[in-house]
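Reading group handout, session on sequence-to-structure problems. Before we discuss, look at one worked example. The prompt was deliberately terse, the way you'd type it at a terminal:

> structure PTS sugar transporter subunit IIA

The input record follows.
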Amino acid sequence: MTKARQDRVLGILIRRGDWVTAATIADQLGVTPRSVRSYVTAANARVPGGEAIESGPAGYRATAAAPAALRAGSEAESGTPRERLHHLVRALLDSSDGIDVHSTADRMHVSSSTLEADLGRVRSLIGGSELSLERSGSRVRLAGSELAQRRLVSRLAHDEMEEGAFDLDALRRAADAIAIPSEALGAFKSDLVARVGELGFYVNEFAAADVVLHVAIAADRVALGRPLDAVHGDPEPTRARFAEVVGELTNRHFGVDLGHGDRLHLAALVMTRIVVPGSRDEPQIAPDPVVLSAVRAATARAAESYLVDIAHDDFTERLALHVQNLVHRAREQAWSRNPLTRTLKSAYPMIFDVAVSIASELAATLGVPIHDDEIAYIAMHVGGRLERSRRAETMLTATIVCPGYYELHELLRSSVDRSLGRAIEVTGVETRADPDWSQIESDLVLTTIEPPVRFAGSDRIVRIQPFLSDADVERVSAAASRVRRSRRLGRLRAELARYFSPGAFLRGLDASRGAEGIIRELGGLLTAQGVIDQDYVESTIERERLSSTAFTDTLAVPHALRMTASRTAIALGVSETPVAWGDARVNVVALVAFSESDRAAFQTVFEQLVEVFGEPESAQRLVRRGTDLSSFLDELAAVIDG
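And the output record:
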């Protein structure tokens, strides 16, 4: 039984916020339901006199004590491999002359052979960075620039955080775990955000905590006599202002005087992470022409490929300012974390895929790598631009049935508009006591009188009071959600019947082949049917390397960024045993080959397929009962029909 798996169980239940079956959790962890029960028991033992996870007929659910149990877990086990690794890295970072293997092993109460194994893990950790381990006899030294060493400290802190958590409490725990002073983090962040606002700039709150971590690391390193070298030349006025602010606040909250090099370095982080491009005082800041040109081209191509309305000057200019900062971060290898990455990927897969397309082209044009968290920021820009048109598409029409009596129907319409105007649009009001119900064609009917018996069971008819109550608002909202979902999944059912290919279904995936091997296997089925060629398969693998297509805890949807298939088709792989896919484990892989002529189907197939598999119980039903394509489609239809 491992603490990490107990933590994962807690994390899954906290994120879901509802009942989750033992089988669903077991599938995500790759263990048996019996193991899940033991993890739950161990997690509950962290809460004296209470429980972090409650059990019931529907499975398990996190209680209010679950977050505290998760925090307690981070403090519980000492001497674990992770803790030893962090102690060892910290010792290497603190000593410019290096450490002696034997004496360090004695201090950590482990054997020299164990410490040698831990040094191997350190080498793996720093692989691909600017750091290396230099050895002379029993003495080992961490070699590399001061900036590279600070990046290593930051990486360790991020590794300590719970999955998806990036608040100040998580940051404090992570900092404490690697011996970085954390007491003043909250006050420093508040003062820094306030000062940035006073200087007339908009603030990215998502990135503020990450920058504060870097300030704490800098203060700690300077206190150890490890400052950054001074920067040559005079900085631009804005950077100089931020440098002054950072120096003043670091002295106030951490009691450390930063040198010129540290102040300017941290000022650059503030400018490229916390400060949103453009300010209240200077909103017309112009992006770099090279970056703007690259963004304009990438946006135009994505708009054409995905049929989305984003190719507008105001959008491209704002995104170009963001990308300009992204390029600075990439060159510094100072990536900006995004706590919404996982949510954006699972809730808005099509928007995220548009962002992947844009990021792919920008990475090639500008010569910088763009990671998932940075792609998520691009997705936020895309989603913000599309929100207005998406809202119009999901707006439902409604007819109010309210027999006339003075201005009662007018008051009711006003109440509906005020309480539900963002979700529905009232297109008609029937004031007769005997309206022709069969002629009412709106999506919803909100009625103050009982409908005829033959209409009474309709999901689109909602009984409300003449004076709209909170309960009425909730019932109408629930009915609107049901109608939208039925409409979306109805489109999906119609589309999927066309696109699933009878000869492209695999039951039982070979997990040892990995994601790329499975893509090649499924792609081979469609290649044999003449739907795609080998170039499409390679393009799908290239897309997978950009960002994992595991959009839910059960489903991966690999696909290429270019819609070059001869026709749209889906090759399906199903496995009762989850297979590793990026950082996730999935049971279903749907390789989708899109053709240029079916571009309009992309959003329907893509988003709604992800929605179906976003419901754990539905996903497990499909996995267990879908033994062949026919039974899989029957179960899918049953799930869609509810």
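Points for discussion. First: Residues 395-468 form a domain with the Rossmann fold fold (CATH 3.40.50). Second: The two ends are 38 Å apart (CA to CA).
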